[in-house]
Structure formats: structure tokens, C-alpha cells
């Protein structure tokens, strides 16, 4: 029962799309309409809002992943397989919030927050940070969507191999699957919009 409570709480926390809400409240900006990818995420909050609102969004997006997992780890057994679902719940909530009919974000920042919530287990977070730095500063990959996909594939595989806890490894795989599928859906939607636009022009 406790696992289900934390899963529900994590999903609800993840469903709060601060990148959509804060720019809308403070600046009357709808970043899902201004941005090309229609993504209610931290990157677009910085890009179409400003540094001030973007920073607030980043902190809140990290916290909504961090708090359910960190608090849950204090009450639950992180080696129980159900804890993998606790880890995945905030990411799933961000990617597929019920109140927006599943039209959520790409779940990058919240994924970092979830992995921060595993402290003192630091291997998963270290791996994700390592691959983001690698593909941002050493082997530069663009656009950002491709970089995120490659990063999370490498993260998921390495977490499976290097994490001592099978439940934590399973949680990392679940997070990777959600992020990759959300990126795939966004890519399909973008291509569909481009095709429809070309047909109208023709």
C-alpha cells in the first residue's frame, strides 16, 4: 500500500508542468505555442521566457522528481522491485499528465531530479551527468533531441550493467523507456505538422 501511495504522489508531482505554468502566470507566455516542438519543458522556459523564470522552473522540475523519491526511499525498501515504479512515476507524470490529455514534456529535468532523490546512491545520477557532458562538450551531438536520445540510451545500458540494486537499475530502464518514447512521439508529431504545412502551401 505504501508503494502505491508514493507512486500516486510521484505521478501527481510529475504532472505539475512548471515550465508551462510559471511563464503563463508571470509573463502571460504560452511556451507550447511559441516553441517549434510545443514542449512544456525547462529548455523552452529559458528560451521563450527569461533566465529568472527559467531558473525557477529548473529548480521546481528537479524538486518534483527529487522529493517523492527521496522521501519514498526513507520509508520504502529501495531494493524492492516496486521501487522501480516509484522512480518512474514522476517522469511518467511529466511526460503524460492526465489534465493535459497526455501532452506533457520530454522529462529530462525531472529525470535528473529522480536520480538526485536516490542519494546516497549516486551511480545512476553520475552516469546521466557523465553522458550529458560527454555528448555536449566532448562528442558534440545536435540537435538537442538527438543528444538526449543517445544520452539516455547510454545511460540505460550502463545503469543496467553498473547499478548494484536490480530495482534501481529497473527504475533507470523505465525512465529511459519513457523519455525515449516521448521523444519518438514528439518527433512523429513534428514531422506530421511539417507534412500538413507543406500540403497547405502546395
UniProtKB/TrEMBL annotation:
One Gene Ontology molecular-function label: acyl-phosphate glycerol-3-phosphate acyltransferase activity
Domain of life: Bacteria
UniProt organism field: Anaerocolumna xylanovorans DSM 12503
Cellular component aspect of the GO annotation: plasma membrane
Entry protein name: Glycerol-3-phosphate acyltransferase PlsY
TM spans (from-to): 6-27, 57-76, 82-99, 111-135
Keywords attached to this entry: Acyltransferase, Cell membrane, Lipid biosynthesis, Lipid metabolism, Membrane, Phospholipid biosynthesis, Phospholipid metabolism, Transferase, Transmembrane, Transmembrane helix
Pfam families xref list: G3P_acyltransf
GO biological process: phospholipid biosynthetic process
Phylogenetic placement of the source organism: Bacteria, Bacillati, Bacillota, Clostridia, Lachnospirales
Amino acid at each position: 500500500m505504501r508503494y502505491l501511495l508514493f507512486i500516486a504522489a510521484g505521478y501527481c508531482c510529475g504532472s505539475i508542468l512548471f515550465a508551462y505554468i510559471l511563464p503563463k502566470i508571470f509573463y502571460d507566455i504560452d511556451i507550447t505555442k511559441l516553441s517549434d516542438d510545443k514542449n512544456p519543458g525547462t529548455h523552452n522556459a529559458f528560451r521563450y521566457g527569461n533566465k529568472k523564470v527559467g531558473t525557477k522552473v529548473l529548480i521546481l522540475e528537479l524538486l518534483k522528481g527529487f522529493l517523492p523519491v527521496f522521501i519514498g526511499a526513507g520509508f520504502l525498501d529501495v531494493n524492492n522491485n516496486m521501487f522501480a515504479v516509484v522512480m518512474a512515476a514522476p517522469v511518467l507524470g511529466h511526460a503524460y499528465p492526465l489534465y493535459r490529455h497526455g501532452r506533457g514534456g520530454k522529462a529530462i529535468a525531472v529525470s535528473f531530479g529522480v536520480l538526485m532523490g536516490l542519494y546516497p546512491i549516486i551511480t545512476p545520477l553520475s552516469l546521466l551527468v557523465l553522458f550529458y557532458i560527454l555528448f555536449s562538450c566532448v562528442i558534440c551531438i545536435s540537435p538537442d533531441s538527438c543528444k538526449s536520445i543517445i544520452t539516455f540510451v547510454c545511460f540505460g545500458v550502463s545503469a543496467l550493467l553498473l547499478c548494484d540494486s536490480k530495482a534501481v537499475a529497473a527504475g533507470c530502464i523505465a525512465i529511459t523507456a519513457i523519455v525515449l518514447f516521448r521523444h519518438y512521439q514528439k518527433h512523429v508529431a513534428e514531422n506530421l505538422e511539417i507534412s500538413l504545412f507543406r500540403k497547405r502551401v502546395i
